[in-house]
Amino acid sequence: MLKKTFKKLSQYEWEIPKTYRSDMRVAVHLFASELLLEAALDDLSLEQAVNVTTLPGLVGPVVVMPDVHQGYGFPIGGVAATAFPHGVISPGGIGYDINCGVRLMSSSIEYTEAQPHLAQLAAALNAACPSGMGKAGPFKLKPSELDAVCRLGAEWAVKQGMATTEDLRRTEETGCVDGADPRWVSEHAKTRGSDQLGTLGSGNHFMEVDVVEQIFDPDAAQAMGLMEGCLVLQFHCGSRGLGHQVCSDYVQEFQSAVRRYGIQLPDRELVCAPMDSPEGQHYLAAMRSAANFAFCNRQVLAHLAQRAFEQVLAGKIRRFHLHQVYDVAHNMGKIETHMIEGKPLKVCVHRKGATRAFGPGQAGLPEEYQAIGQPVLVPGSMGTASWVLVGTETSMAISYGSTCHGAGRVMSRSKAKRDVRGDRLRDELEQQGIHIQAGSLAGLAEEAPQAYKDVDDVVETVSGAGIARKVARLRPVVVVKG
DNA sequence: ATGTAC
């Protein structure tokens, strides 16, 4: 797409007007600096955003985040809100990794004190948290147990002694989205998920120990238990093969639904169905089941990681307890109420590679975050910084309570694999004092920092546009990847 | 993202 297509609204906001193409129902609103706009022009992500504007039932502009890149049908880094219940829901607007998300845990362990033990900690985390493609975890769930995970989400882990009620309170949707019904999850998806609870996966999924490097908002940092110079644990993963199969199943099933409901689409990958149709209802029930599987997966991983910390640091470090800061979803369709043209309206917010970023005072936020807004967790690319932000009143007003989710890819996986030597990259990161545990050197190369945008630029944009506020910057010291 | 093509 050409830069002249965009109308500049402010330093960090650009618009593709509705007049750009005759089938657009709404405009595209992109958050980007000049530099990030130019990066976004290099792939098909903005054409995809224009395609999304043709979906029936949109209530306002399709919003695009600065970490945008091309995805299946919808761009990764896109947000679209459709009227509930007559508007459509589209699996491609949520993504193959349903409820892919990030969890952050704080500690009072000082980096300087823990530094001699970090290599051992990296190995212990790698041993405790299975990672890699198709990797099985510590449990083989019977069908009735898997159904319970899909219905209960992270609460299932409380019953198993792997979670506390505080963990749930500090999880988006308290770790369980309503309306999940595993009867609409295929047997195939259930089979794939049955041994994957408590696993990290591959690709850009990771587990990381970071040091809190700089605090920008002391009040918010204090509410979250973040202290400069102390270690935190964060990880990024989702619903594994189960969610992937749910998305595949419904993308296929929706092909005929599109014809049945007479929906015109510029791209088959945008397949969708009205939320109040049987197809839409079944997908919602299955997608929510996969979302709960992912919440439970992150809860189990948190438990396994905590045990690894105890195993390595007990007796060496005075206090090693990890406290949940928050757990966010960045691939999800949620029914929420937003102010649309001055009136509250129930909508389905499709967030694909976009983080919910509720501002202060929103229902559903735990008491300690009511005044500061929802914690937003933005991991950078491997070996680079990550950010903790909070949602704002502006994000509620102009981005359906959403903000960015990461650095955003700029180089294809195949090109990164050609250009980057995994062994050299590992050595470079080790030289920077980052302990790496990598299941696959080819996988490591695909995630090289040069394959991603600069997360600091992305955060500068969302912060400058006002759709999130900076709380803390984190620096990695241990990275575990599949 | 993903038993990376039934």
From TrEMBL:
It catalyses: a 3'-end 3'-phospho-ribonucleotide-RNA + a 5'-end dephospho-ribonucleoside-RNA + GTP = a ribonucleotidyl-ribonucleotide-RNA + GMP + diphosphate; a 3'-end 2',3'-cyclophospho-ribonucleotide-RNA + a 5'-end dephospho-ribonucleoside-RNA + GTP + H2O = a ribonucleotidyl-ribonucleotide-RNA + GMP + diphosphate + H(+). Keywords: GTP-binding, Ligase, Manganese, Metal-binding, Nucleotide-binding, RNA repair. Pfam families: RtcB. The active site is at H405 (gmp-histidine intermediate). Its cofactor is Mn(2+). Mn(2+) 1 binds at D97, H205. Binds 2 manganese ions per subunit. GO terms for biological process: RNA processing; RNA repair. PANTHER family: RNA-SPLICING LIGASE RTCB HOMOLOG. Belongs to the RtcB family. Monomer. This is tRNA-splicing ligase RtcB. The gene is rtcB.
